[in-house]
Structure formats: structure tokens, C-alpha cells
């Protein structure tokens, strides 16, 4: 492998302008993240401390092994929903190390509406458990939730991927032999009661922890029975009478201590042996990424410059360097793990699609995980390309990618438009993790293109109907379309809807991928095989 | 997450700050870089800590480590912050009857300070007398069955005052 | 090598001394027989011996004091001699007699000599008669009041001790007439309790006395030589903890006088085998006969180290009738040797005995040091036997080097799991007064404060805590068991 020779001049005017732009985007991201993590009404925080409870992030910090990372996922989930009433979708999800085992940690956030589950909370939890299933990662639930947010029950309760999916996933996890531990710090009411109920191990804090299908008010309303929380579902009742929970704890600290001891009993994972080298920092400073990503989504940049700031030693073995040059393919190491990288350097043509499909097959044969670095406006369109079979060549790439047995990871480095999103392992393609940079935009096409397309359609329609074209109406349509697109194209909208696993600082890409790859190796590789390629 | 160690009746805190490129421990709030790690197990070892090579001998005796270093022997023991509780963690406030029966003897009265394992009441059940021990250290809050009174399985026979936080 | 007369010797002892004797037996090609109580079935002396006989008793110590069983064991195994070591039956005349009666050689003086020297009064009288200086004293009597009256006459301070005892039991110093009666009564009752003989004995107490003893060898026919003296002044609870040879700051003339005195006594007694004549030496240079030990001393290795002789071999050869191994003129001393007694005890708590388990034993290895012990890693240290675990004996070209080497050896000695006096011994050796040779039997109490363990140095504390923390499996796992890339990424948050 050869070290990539960067062509970037860090003193150039473009570099500085881009850097200013991207650092501003990053600051905005950090600001939103900080608010989602910590901005809470004083009243809620006081209630929590009066109950002797820690804040959910304190619990996580105490649970994690000291001096180890925590890759938080979807920190800005629901940031554009519910008028911002559900920061981080009222839950914290991430991957970290507890007692030397890598685990998914999923915590309710009692500082938001008593930890009630919004629709996107359920989506986030389901996604967390999907991650656990796909990667065979044990899960630690930190339970403290009032239950479903009743005002939005139709969006929380009935459908396939709503709250019920959480418990379905828990059951399947257990069937797969993936361990789950619940630390019950607060209430687990109604469906929430099944989280400890379906966990292999559970610890419950005396005095504050409680598990029941119906709380005292519901019991009173239903049967007239008057009962206290402790009697109905407290720590001593569940650990000594019902057997619903396993270990009583005197306080939250002890619950965490017991939880850590439980995890220490678990067998260590036997990962499949992805080819590995000793890790090495990139030769180029990752902070230079800020000066590489342009200040306009339409401006092209060389993705090799990005690769050079993510991979070990900035070394890259480029495959078919002279063929299909709009798709860069090649091997590199990230935190020591050998990966195959596919990175967009322009629109996908027939040759680049074929090269991509072929490279994906090579990686599958070589047990090499795939990393997709997206900056794609789509597959090339037009008569010439359709005649050359751009659709069937694109289909080959999608087929190869979809049927891959190796883990896939996607980073949205800039734009993700059209079918290019599919070929490059968009959200629908079961990549193990998908991370987004703050400058990212996603849509079936760009805002301007969509406005132009719709305006074009409108003009044609007007011409068909009466022959006169109302220019003002067309302009208004163009403007509305562009605006609506602009909002929904943004990374914040994308991450709010959990179309990704979180926005990350571009500089953090290497660490995020390192942890993601490590996590992915817990799940055994499936049998190889593809569908029918259209030649 | 720190380990608490007691040496000469003083408690010290040791936790991990970093592992790469070298292990960095925070000991009583101060960082110490260990550039060479000692081997595991009992016996002689060498470590480089804070830029100094330090030879020592060490032996493990349960929750104690005996360390010989610099011509002195130190007896360091681990402090379990939750040792007050039972082995399963979190001691209970209530003493429940393990089976139906009758109280034969009440050993302690409300307000009495008791230590874990000390009998609170003796019950008779199925012609078998059993002493019910205090589930943790604490103060008896109530004895809910007098001598001669009967009870059902899982009934609370005695309670302890709830634990108060002590830092 | 002289052809051994004995083919098999039973070692009527245990612990380090049994091992030490067996080492010489092995060198001499003589088979060894060990005796052991059930609790020490896997002890090192048992493993070292060619064969072993289990002895029984209510306590392990009682078994080792059972003359009949031990003689029977020697007979049953066909041993033609018994080496008694020190302690236990080594100075028991009845034992020597029983052994002889069984037709087995006793490696030591005969029963009559043991009796003579074993009784403080007869020994003292014998010494006095043969021109060996003794301290003004009062003979024991059954009449305690008469004893008190006589004692008062020789003046104070006075040392009172049991007539039949040794090892500091029932010993006390009386500084005024007012305290005499009470002290005598206590001494008498302790003597009764420990030795079954309530008679007590008093003599002039020498202030800041030094304990000097002379190693002698006698051929049993009036021939005797000395192997120089040893200084055993550093004591706690009336028991030696550091011994050295030669003594520090001893004028050559005085050394010659003391050694000559000891040879005179041994010759007069027709002493046979190895013995030690103990003296008390005052600051004024006057020395008085204390007692004679009719056996090998615990501290004999310091004499071996400076003279190059093997005292156990000498004992065996003398017992075999081969006479003295060398003439006085051929005895030379080279350099300086120091012995430290490693005991399971807590110097910070008045040297109270400690028990525990030797979880790790690491002994420094040097040509100039001998580590005499029967300890094994994993061995439990119980209150069944004496708290002395081992002896660390070091040789140097002079006293200065011997002290430095001893401190280095103690520093390098790791005996972990049971509290010991190792650190304390190093502090004694490093004390200015010790280095200056300003020794006397009250050294330990005189320098009590300076010898107490100091606060932990600020730089050492984190080192100790780090080593301890990393010793716990759980913490080790936490520090070293983190999977990659998590360990390398460290405390990163996104």
C-alpha cells in the first residue's frame, strides 16, 4: 500500500474558506447536541436529585470502564420533531465497554417527560436492538420510563416497527444468545415492564425502581385496589416474591456495581478474524477535513483527500486506478482492520458501476468489510448511457452490494442523491452503521433540481391546458419546492428521523468506524451468495 | 469506576485514565503514567511509573495485596463499598417468613442495633426451628409477630430501618 | 574427606536447623532420618530427609519433646546417632542419657555435662571454681524470704531469673529494694509455671550490658579450642534478633581474655562437642559468666562464615571419636558476619507473634549470604511452633560491608503473607548507633522511637497503590483486558 499524496494546500484561500464554513457547521452541530444532551427544565432536574437519582449520562459514565470510549448513536434523533420536546428522542443509545465487553447501552431519559416514549423513541430503541442483533452485541438497558407517550399512542403502539418491535427484538436477541441486562432505576410501566422482564439479568434499585404492568392509579381505576408502588412492583417484592427481577440494590451506585459484576461473568465474544495490522494514525491531520469539504454541495472534491485523513498511515491500495475513475475503490486499514473502501468522485457511469460491483465481490471473497464514503448525485442519465445499460450496470452494483456477506458501513460525507444512494449502501441496505457529516444533504434529487423538474412539469401542464404560462405561479412553486426540499434535505432532518445512526464530527469518523467495525465482527459471516445479475 | 484501597487505615482511590500509548492511572487525584507494566500474579515484578523503574514483590491474599517495595512491606486491602449488603447485593429492609409457621422466640426489639446474620426471631415450622437472621446491619424497625403468633409464607416478620446514605 | 563413622543419623528437630543439619549429612554421605508430627508431614525437613518417622503428641511441640518415641524412631530406622539441633531436647540430660542407653550416639556432650551446665547454679559454681568470672549473686533457695534478704545485700540493680529456665522466661530487673520482694515472687511463680521449679536466682545486673558468647569445641578429654566470639546484644523480649561475629569494637586483649576464659571452662569440664559459653560484658570491660549452652546455637552460622568451618560436621566428627578438627593455632577468622532472625511478629505491636500464610517467598541469591529456613511458599505459619521463620546470614570483608550487605539482602527478601520483622531488622542495622557498634541488650528499647516504622514516603505511596491495584485480577482485567480499538481510542466521546 502506498501513502496517498495529498494535493491540498492548507494555506490556500479555498482551504481557509471551506474550513471557516465547516467549523461553523460543526459549532452549530455541537450547540444542538449540547442542548439535546443537557438543556432541561430545572424543575425536572431537581425532582430527579430529590429522588436520589443520577442523570442518565452520569449512570452511563459510571457503568462504562474508565478511560474507554463511548460511541453515542443518534444524539440528535427527534431534534426536528415534537417542537423539540423529545431531545435525543428521550433516550441515549451508544456502544461502549463494560467490564471489558463491548456492549450496546440504551438508557431512558427521565429528565424528559418522565422518560416517556415518543414515536421516535420507539424507533430509536428498535434501531438499538437491531444493531445488537445484527452485530450480536449484548445490551444493557438503563430503565427509567413512564411508558408510552399517550397523546401519540397511534404512532407508538400499533404498527410493525413501533413499540412492540422492541419486545420482539428482545426475544429474538435472547434466542440468538445475545445477553441483555436491565438496570431498573425508575419505573418500568406497562410495555416498559417487559424490558427487564425479557432481559436475562435484571437489577432493581430499592425505593425508586419499580416494575408493573399497571401502576397504582391504573390498578385503583380498574379494580379499586389501593396499593403502594413498593408493594405493587418494588425491589424487594420482585426480587424476593415474584422473581421478576434478580438483584436488589440499595441505590443506583450499587445497581451499577452489581451490573458490572454481572457483565464480568459473561463469556468473551469470539469474533471472526478480520485481517488486522497494528493500528497507526493517519499521516495527514484529520482536522484538515474541514478545509477539504467545500462550502457548496455542488462543488466537487477529491475523495482521496478524505480517505487520507481516515485510514491508517494514510495508506491506500487503489484498485483499478485508471478505470471507472468516478468511483474510487481500494483497500486500507482503519484502526488496524482491513477494509475495502468505495468512495464517490463524481457521478456513477457504466464503468464505475461495474468496477464498484466487481470490487464488492472481491471484498466478499476476501472477507473484507466494506466502507462506503458517499458524495453522490446519482447514476449518469441520458440516451447514450441508457443505451449502454446504465440501469442494468447500476443494478449489478446494487445486487452485489445488497447481497454482501461482509459488514458494510456508510459515511455520508456530502450529498446523497438519487439511486446513487442505493448503490452506495444507503439506509435501506442494512449497512451495520451509517454516519452523517453535518454538511450532508439527502434526497431523491437536489432542491434546485426538484424545483426545476416540478416547474418544468407545471409549465408543460399549463401549456397543455390553455397555452399561457403563469410565470409568477411557476416561480412560487419553484421557490416553495426548493424551500421544502432544503429543510428535508438537511442532515438534521435526516438524523431527526433516524435515517442514520447519528451526525458525527468528520474528525471523529475514524474512531466511529473503528468501533463500528470492531462491533460488527461479533456476528458470524453469513453464507456467500448473490441473486441474478443482469449482464 | 475506581478501586478503593486501604493502606494503614487510609482509603485511597485508583482509577484508569488512559491505556494508550501507556497506562495512566489516577491515584488519589494525581495522574501516574506506567510506561512498563508489571507481569500478572504473585512474585517479583518491575514497573516503570512516573519515569522511574520500580522493582517490587507482590502477593495476593483474597482481598489483600501484600507489596514489598523499597525495602518495606505494605499490606493493602480492597474496600468494597457495598460490603454492608448481602452477597447478592442490596440488603433488604424486610425479613420475610421462608415458610408458614409460628414465632417461638423474639430475640431483638425495635430500636436494637443488629449486625448481619444475627438472629432476630426463631420460628417453628414443620416441627423445625429456624433462626431468622438480620439480612444486613441496621436498626430493628419493627417485630411484627409476637411469640406464639402464626404467619404465612412470605409474610413480613420483622423490618429494619431504611438505610441512610453515608458517603 | 574423612570417612564417616556414622551411616545414618536421626535429626531430632524440625524447621531450619533440621534442614541445616541434613545438608551437612548429605555432604558427608550420611543418611538422614526426620521426625515429624502429622501437621508437618509435608514440611521441608521431611522432604529433605532420606526417611521420616511420624511422631504423635497432643500438640506438635509435645511430640517433639517425647523422648521415648524419638529414641524408638532412631532404633526402628537403624540410626546410629542422633543430632538434637537446638531447642526441644537438645539440652535435656534425660534425653542424652536415653539415647546413650539405647546404644545410639548423642551428638553433643554427655548427660552429666548437660546437667552440670543446665542448672544455672551448678554451672555458675563450676565456673567460679575454675577461675571464670561470675557476677556477684544469690543462690536459689526454697526459702523466698531468705533469698530476698540475701539479694538485698549485694545491691542493685539486680537481675532475677528462674534457676531452671532460659530464654528470658521469668526474668526481671530490680532497681530498688522496694520492688525486690514483689519481683522475686513473680519470678518464682513464673519459674514454677514454665519450668516446674519455683527456685529463683539473682545476680548483679550490669547496666548497658553486652551479650558476648564464645563458640568452643571440646574433645571430651580436656582438649578444647575456641572459634572466637559472637556478639548477640540486639535482643527483644530477652531474645536475640541480630548476632554477629566478631563483636563490634571489642579490644583485642579483651577478646583474647574472654575466649581464653571460655576454653578454660570447657577444658575443665572435659567438654565434648560444640558448646557456647555466654558472657555479659559491661561498659567497664568487666565480663561475667552467664551460662553455657551445651548444643549448637541458632547463630552458629556467623562463626562458620568467619572461620570457614562447618560446625555440624565438626560435631559429628567429634561425636564419632575423631577428635577436634583443628588446633587452636589453625583457627583463623576472616571478615565479618551478621545474622538476622526473621520472625513472624509485629514490631509495631511489641513484637507480638503473627500468623498467616507465606503466599510468596523470594530470597536474594548471593555468594555472601546464607538463607537458613525450612519455609515453603504457600506454607501456613501457625502458633504451633516458634515464630522464627528463617535466618539471613551475611558475610562481608568488614563490619561496614556486612551491615550494608545485610540491609541489601533484607531489602531484597520478600516473605509475603505473614507480618515479619524484616523491615524492622533493616532499620536496626541502618541505625547510626548500630553502625557505630554502640550495642547493648537494651538497644531495642533505647532506640524504640527511631526504630518505629516511619510514614510512607510521598513518592512511594502511588507506587505501592499502583502495584497493589494491578495485583487484583478485577483491576488487572479492567486495565489490560479492554478490547481494541477501545483501549487505544481511550476516553473519547463523540
From TrEMBL, chain A:
Region (Disordered): 32-55
UniProt cross-references to PANTHER family, sorted A to Z: ACETYL, PROPIONYL, PYRUVATE, AND GLUTACONYL CARBOXYLASE-RELATED, METHYLCROTONOYL-COA CARBOXYLASE BETA CHAIN, MITOCHONDRIAL
Protein name: Methylcrotonoyl-CoA carboxylase
Lineage of origin: Bacteria, Pseudomonadati, Pseudomonadota, Alphaproteobacteria, Hyphomicrobiales
Residue ranges of domain CoA carboxyltransferase C-terminal in the record: 278-527
Entry-linked SUPFAM superfamilies: ClpP/crotonase
Native source organism of the sequence: Neoaquamicrobium microcysteis
One protein family per Pfam: Carboxyl_trans
Alphabetical GO biological process terms: L-leucine catabolic process
Gene3D superfamilies: 2-enoyl-CoA Hydratase, Chain A, domain 1
UniProtKB/TrEMBL annotation, chain C:
Alphabetically ordered keywords of this record: ATP-binding, Biotin, Ligase, Nucleotide-binding
Pfam families: Biotin_carb_C, Biotin_carb_N, CPSase_L_D2
Domain of life, per lineage: Bacteria
GO MF annotations, alphabetized: ATP binding; ligase activity; metal ion binding
Organism: Neoaquamicrobium microcysteis
Domain ATP-grasp: 124-320
Domain named Biotin carboxylation: residues: 5-449
Protein's UniProt keywords contain ATP-binding: yes
UniProt keyword Nucleotide-binding present: yes
Lineage, opening ranks: Bacteria, Pseudomonadati, Pseudomonadota, Alphaproteobacteria, Hyphomicrobiales
Coiled coil: none
PANTHER family: CARBOXYLASE:PYRUVATE/ACETYL-COA/PROPIONYL-COA CARBOXYLASE (PTHR18866), PTHR18866:SF127
Descriptive protein name: ATP-grasp domain-containing protein
InterPro entries: ATP-grasp, BC-like_N, Biotin_carboxylase_complex, Biotin_carboxylation_dom, Biotin_COase_C, CPAse_ATP-bd, PreATP-grasp_dom_sf, Rudment_hybrid_motif
Amino acid at each position: 500500500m502506498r501513502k496517498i499524496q495529498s494535493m491540498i494546500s492548507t494555506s490556500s484561500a479555498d482551504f481557509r474558506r471551506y474550513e471557516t464554513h465547516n467549523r461553523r457547521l460543526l459549532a452549530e452541530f455541537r450547540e444542538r447536541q449540547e442542548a439535546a444532551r443537557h438543556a432541561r427544565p430545572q424543575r425536572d432536574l431537581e425532582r430527579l436529585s430529590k429522588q436520589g437519582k443520577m442523570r442518565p449520562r452520569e449512570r452511563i459514565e459510571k457503568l462504562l470502564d474508565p478511560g474507554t470510549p463511548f460511541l453515542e448513536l443518534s444524539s440528535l434523533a427527534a431534534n426536528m420533531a415534537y417542537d423539540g420536546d423529545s431531545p435525543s428522542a428521550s433516550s441515549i443509545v451508544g456502544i461502549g465497554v463494560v467490564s471489558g465487553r463491548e456492549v450496546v447501552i440504551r438508557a431512558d431519559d427521565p429528565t424528559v417527560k418522565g422518560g416517556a416514549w415518543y414515536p421516535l423513541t420507539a424507533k430509536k430503541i428498535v434501531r438499538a436492538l437491531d444493531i445488537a442483533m445484527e452485530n450480536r452485541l449484548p445490551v444493557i438497558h438503563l430503565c427509567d420510563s413512564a411508558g408510552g407517550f399517550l397523546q401519540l399512542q397511534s404512532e407508538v403502539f400499533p404498527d410493525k416497527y413501533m413499540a412492540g418491535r422492541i419486545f420482539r427484538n428482545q426475544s429474538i436477541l435472547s434466542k440468538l444468545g445475545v445477553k441483555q441486562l436491565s438496570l431498573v432505576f425508575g419505573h418500568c410501566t406497562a410495555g416498559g415492564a417487559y424490558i427487564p422482564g425479557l432481559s436475562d439479568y435484571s437489577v432493581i434499585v430499592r425505593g425508586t425502581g419499580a416494575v408493573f404492568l399497571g401502576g397504582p392509579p391504573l390498578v385503583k381505576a380498574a379494580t379499586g385496589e389501593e396499593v403502594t408502588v413498593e408493594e405493587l412492583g418494588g425491589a424487594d417484592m420482585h426480587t424476593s416474591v415474584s422473581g421478576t427481577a434478580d438483584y436488589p440494590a440499595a441505590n443506583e451506585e450499587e445497581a451499577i456495581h452489581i451490573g458490572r459484576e454481572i457483565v464480568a461473568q459473561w463469556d468473551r465474544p469470539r469474533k471472526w478474524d478480520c485481517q488486522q495490522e497494528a493500528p497507526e494514525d493517519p499521516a495527514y491531520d484529520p482536522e484538515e477535513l474541514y478545509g477539504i469539504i467545500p462550502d457548496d454541495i455542488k462543488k466537487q472534491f477529491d475523495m482521496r483527500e478524505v480517505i487520507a485523513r481516515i485510514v491508517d498511515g494514510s495508506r491506500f491500495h487503489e484498485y483499478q486506478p485508471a478505470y471507472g475513475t468516478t468511483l474510487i475503490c481500494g483497500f486500507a486499514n482503519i484502526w488496524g482492520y482491513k477494509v475495502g473502501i468505495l468512495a464517490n468522485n463524481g457521478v456513477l457511469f457504466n464503468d464505475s458501476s461495474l468496477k464498484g460491483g466487481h470490487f464488492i465481490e472481491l471484498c466478499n471473497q476476501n472477507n473484507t468489510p466494506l466502507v462506503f464514503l458517499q458524495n453522490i448525485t446519482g447514476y449518469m442519465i441520458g440516451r447514450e448511457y441508457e443505451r449502454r445499460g446504465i440501469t442494468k450496470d447500476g443494478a449489478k452494483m446494487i445486487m452485489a452490494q445488497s447481497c454482501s456477506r461482509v459488514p458494510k458501513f456508510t459515511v455520508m460525507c456530502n450529498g446523497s442523491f438519487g439511486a446513487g444512494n442505493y448503490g452506495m449502501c444507503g439506509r435501506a441496505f442494512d449497512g451495520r452503521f451509517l454516519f452523517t457529516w453535518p454538511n450532508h444533504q439527502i434526497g431523491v434529487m437536489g432542491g434546485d433540481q426538484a424545483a426545476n423538474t416540478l416547474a418544468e412539469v407545471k409549465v408543460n401542464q399549463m401549456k397543455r391546458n390553455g397555452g399561457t404560462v403563469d410565470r409568477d405561479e411557476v416561480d412560487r412553486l419553484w421557490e416553495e419546492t426548493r424551500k421544502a426540499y432544503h429543510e428535508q434535505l438537511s442532515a438534521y432532518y435526516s438524523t431527526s428521523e433516524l435515517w442514520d445512526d447519528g451526525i458525527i464530527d468528520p474528525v471523529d469518523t475514524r474512531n466511529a468506524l473503528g468501533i463500528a467495525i470492531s462491533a460488527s465482527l461479533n456476528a458470524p459471516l453469513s453464507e456467500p451468495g448473490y441473486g441474478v445479475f443482469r449482464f | 469506576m475506581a478501586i478503593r484501597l486501604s493502606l494503614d487505615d487510609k482509603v485511597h482511590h485508583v482509577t484508569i485514565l488512559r491505556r494508550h500509548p501507556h497506562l495512566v492511572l489516577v491515584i488519589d487525584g494525581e495522574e501516574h503514567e506506567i510506561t512498563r507494566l508489571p507481569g500478572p500474579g504473585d512474585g517479583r515484578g518491575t514497573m516503570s511509573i512516573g519515569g522511574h523503574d520500580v522493582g517490587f514483590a507482590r502477593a495476593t491474599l483474597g482481598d489483600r495485596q501484600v507489596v514489598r517495595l523499597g525495602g518495606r512491606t505494605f499490606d493493602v486491602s480492597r474496600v468494597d463499598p457495598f460490603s454492608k449488603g448481602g452477597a447478592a447485593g442490596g440488603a433488604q429492609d424486610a425479613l420475610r417468613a421462608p415458610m408458614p409457621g409460628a414465632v417461638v422466640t423474639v430475640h431483638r426489639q425495635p430500636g436494637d442495633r443488629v449486625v448481619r446474620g444475627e438472629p432476630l426471631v426463631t420460628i417453628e415450622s414443620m416441627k423445625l426451628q429456624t433462626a431468622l437472621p438480620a439480612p444486613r446491619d441496621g436498626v430493628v424497625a419493627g417485630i411484627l409477630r409476637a411469640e406464639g403468633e402464626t404467619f404465612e409464607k412470605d409474610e413480613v416478620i420483622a423490618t429494619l430501618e431504611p438505610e441512610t446514605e453515608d458517603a | 574427606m574423612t570417612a564417616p563413622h556414622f551411616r545414618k543419623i536421626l535429626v531430632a528437630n524440625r524447621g531450619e536447623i533440621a534442614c541445616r543439619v541434613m545438608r551437612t549429612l548429605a555432604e558427608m554421605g550420611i543418611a538422614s532420618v526426620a521426625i515429624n508430627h502429622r501437621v508437618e508431614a509435608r514440611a521441608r525437613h521431611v522432604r529433605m530427609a532420606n526417611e521420616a518417622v511420624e511422631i504423635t503428641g497432643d500438640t506438635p511441640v509435645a511430640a517433639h519433646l517425647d523422648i521415648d518415641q524419638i529414641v524408638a524412631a532412631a532404633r526402628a530406622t537403624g540410626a546410629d546417632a542422633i543430632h538434637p539441633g537446638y531447642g526441644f531436647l537438645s539440652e535435656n540430660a534425660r534425653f542424652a542419657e536415653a539415647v546413650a542407653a539405647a546404644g545410639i550416639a548423642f551428638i553433643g556432650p554427655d548427660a552429666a555435662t548437660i546437667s552440670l551446665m543446665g542448672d544455672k547454679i551448678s554451672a555458675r559454681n563450676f565456673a567460679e571454681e575454675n577461675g571464670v568470672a561470675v557476677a556477684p549473686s544469690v543462690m536459689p533457695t526454697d526459702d523466698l524470704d531468705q533469698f530476698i534478704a540475701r539479694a538485698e545485700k549485694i545491691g542493685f540493680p539486680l537481675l532475677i531469673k528462674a534457676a531452671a529456665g532460659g530464654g528470658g522466661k521469668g526474668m526481671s530487673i530490680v532497681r530498688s529494694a522496694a520492688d525486690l520482694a514483689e519481683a522475686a515472687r513473680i519470678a518464682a511463680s513464673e519459674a514454677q509455671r514454665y519450668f516446674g521449679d519455683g527456685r529463683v536466682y539473682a545476680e548483679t545486673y550490669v547496666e548497658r550490658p553486652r551479650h558476648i558468647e564464645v563458640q568452643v569445641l571440646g574433645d571430651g578429654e580436656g582438649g578444647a579450642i575456641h572459634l572466637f566470639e559472637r556478639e548477640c546484644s540486639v535482643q527483644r523480649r530477652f531474645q536475640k534478633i541480630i548476632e554477629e561475629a566478631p563483636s563490634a569494637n571489642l579490644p583485642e586483649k579483651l577478646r583474647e581474655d574472654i575466649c581464653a576464659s571460655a576454653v578454660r571452662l570447657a577444658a575443665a569440664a572435659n567438654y565434648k562437642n560444640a558448646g557456647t559459653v555466654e558472657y555479659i560484658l559491661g561498659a567497664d570491660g568487666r565480663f561475667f559468666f552467664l551460662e553455657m549452652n551445651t548444643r549448637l546455637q541458632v547463630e552458629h552460622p556467623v562463626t562458620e562464615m568467619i572461620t570457614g568451618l562447618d560446625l555440624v560436621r565438626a560435631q559429628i566428627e567429634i561425636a564419632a571419636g575423631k577428635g577436634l578438627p583443628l588446633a587452636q593455632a589453625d583457627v583463623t577468622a576472616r571478615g565479618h558476619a551478621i545474622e538476622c532472625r526473621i520472625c513472624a511478629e509485629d514490631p509495631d505491636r511489641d513484637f507480638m507473634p503473627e500468623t498467616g500464610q507465606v503466599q510468596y517467598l523470594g530470597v536474594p541469591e548471593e555468594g555472601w549470604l546464607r538463607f537458613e529456613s525450612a519455609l515453603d511458599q504457600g506454607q501456613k505459619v501457625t502458633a504451633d511452633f516458634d515464630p522464627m521463620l528463617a535466618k539471613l546470614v551475611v558475610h562481608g570483608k568488614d563490619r561496614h560491608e556486612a551491615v550494608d550487605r545485610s540491609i541489601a539482602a533484607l531489602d531484597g527478601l520478600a516473605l509475603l503473607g505473614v507480618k515479619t520483622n524484616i523491615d524492622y531488622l533493616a532499620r536496626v542495622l541502618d541505625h547510626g548507633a548500630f553502625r557505630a557498634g554502640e550495642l547493648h541488650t537494651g538497644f531495642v528499647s533505647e532506640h524504640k522511637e527511631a526504630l518505629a516504622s516511619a510514614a510512607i514516603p510521598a513518592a512511594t505511596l502511588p507506587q505501592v497503590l499502583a502495584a497493589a491495584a494491578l495485583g487484583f485480577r478485577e483491576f488487572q482485567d479492567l486495565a489490560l483486558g479492554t478490547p481494541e480499538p477501545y483501549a487505544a481510542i481511550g476516553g473519547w466521546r463523540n
